[in-house]
Amino acid sequence: MANHVFNTVRTQDNTAAMPDAIPLHDTETHADTDMQAHRHDRLEGRTIAILATNGVEEVELTEPVAALRNAGAQTVLVSPTHGYIQAMEGDIHPTHRYQVDLLVSQAHARNFDGLVLPGGTTSPDHLRMDDDAVRFVREFVQADKPIAAICHGPWTLINANGVRGHRITSWPSLRADLTNAGAHWVDEEVVTDGTLVTSRNPHDLKAFCPAIVALFATVHHHAPQ
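^ Protease I, sequence as received from the core. Prediction below:
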């Protein structure tokens, strides 16, 4: 895996990103502002996959990436979509387009130290119906690699058989889905259960971002760079 942050890996057919697409490392977020004076290297050498597609909730994409980057991690935007993905605010308002680094059909958990599943309603709904996306998430589950999911992100985990027996939170409408899949659902801002961290919504990002850095810092064997 290339030792760079976003926009480092061409898609298989060399599809170029759209001219108005933004590499995630070029965005400025609240996490950047809050953490600029507190940069550290807890995640140095680690490579984290961010799995998302069109309709992803923008702050649930950009804020975790900023927190991971400030902690020294490399991040790779993985998607079934070629070129770029359209982010949203509240599922309704289009915001920015972000360049995809790697098609999920080419991606394997063995090349990463952890996985982040942002929310928004549309992105996780598409991902859980995509065979390659579900296979990619399942590889993390089977390898017991750390996974962080927020809002509707756990939807894809259900299809990857990754929630049974876990204490987990999410957007409230997923409660029945997660319970039926064998999870113990709770209404808390952030829940850490083994190699899984979950949160409910964008308001929980201030708790979610430090929790995912702490989770990924527990990884001892780094993925190949």
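Residues 58-70 form the longest helix (13 residues).
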